[in-house]
């Protein structure tokens, strides 16, 4: 490999994580020479590394059982680079789901948002750093509040992309970071209950992801340049979103209080709710794609004003969720009176026959139906009703739950294809947590 041109070798190194790069440095003088020119660090602590870390192998005379502590390796790797533009460090998923007996909460060797550790390397890379991602070790970080966000705001004025996960963030007055355009906070305890600091210090955010955040009370998002916002929490008392240039919005919540959304440029909206509170949604004149998921679809639909711009609509009633309790039956006639220009409809329901097909939507061109059970006679009747009402329909997809896709599904497929041979059919199966599987005939 040493015979390859240096630009190719450099490109190879740039695509590898830092652990693999370190191994190559030990086997090749060329790689060792090129390493200081790299501009990124990508290092994840694995389960094997965790077990053999020298911090956990005490009084051992066998040096082969120990490895250099993770934090030390991070600092050494950064020290060997001339310019650092990207740092991504974290803990692999396997470490997060181990039994409690593996851990000692008093240790901090994998507490990656620890201020002392951060200060050992952040100041030296701050001027050139553009992307930073830290996934902390939840067992060690959950009870340790950190000022890491404040330090980042002080030192990293050129940062563009920031991601922090599994940390308890203390947010005193932060320094403005006008260059930051992407921010992701996930599994984070947050002291900024209203998100005032976030709005003031990151004014030019274009992408904001707040996933499983605790500590919020009345979050308010007022960001003029925001284009994409994903907000997923267990509950909120009141959520206000005022974003004039927002294009994509995804809201996920088990239990909501008040919701106010003002986003006139919005083109794609995903809303997932288990129990809805008070809504106030202004007209979305540019909304093209809408995804609604709830046990109370009828109520949520009643909140929306008539919206002529929606063409792609997905409705998921969530009856198949274990322990789900709610009234999810809704009237398709009502749906199309609210979104009269829908041309592509996707329905995810336990039983397609529960839905009232007494509607007339000439413009519907594609239909996708997800089902949990198969009753060939009942479903065929429902499909036939849709075919009669939607004269412009050209494509129908039927996706059944994997463990229900037996002989009954096969006979249903054959019957549909025989009755409507000119229709473009797509058949598939679905299962929780996996991608859909499409069948070929």
From TrEMBL:
InterPro entries: AUF1-like, F-box-like_dom_sf, F-box_dom. Residues 1-34 form the F-box domain. SUPFAM superfamilies: F-box domain, RNI-like. It comes from the Eukaryota. This is F-box/RNI-like superfamily protein. It comes from Artemisia annua (Sweet wormwood).
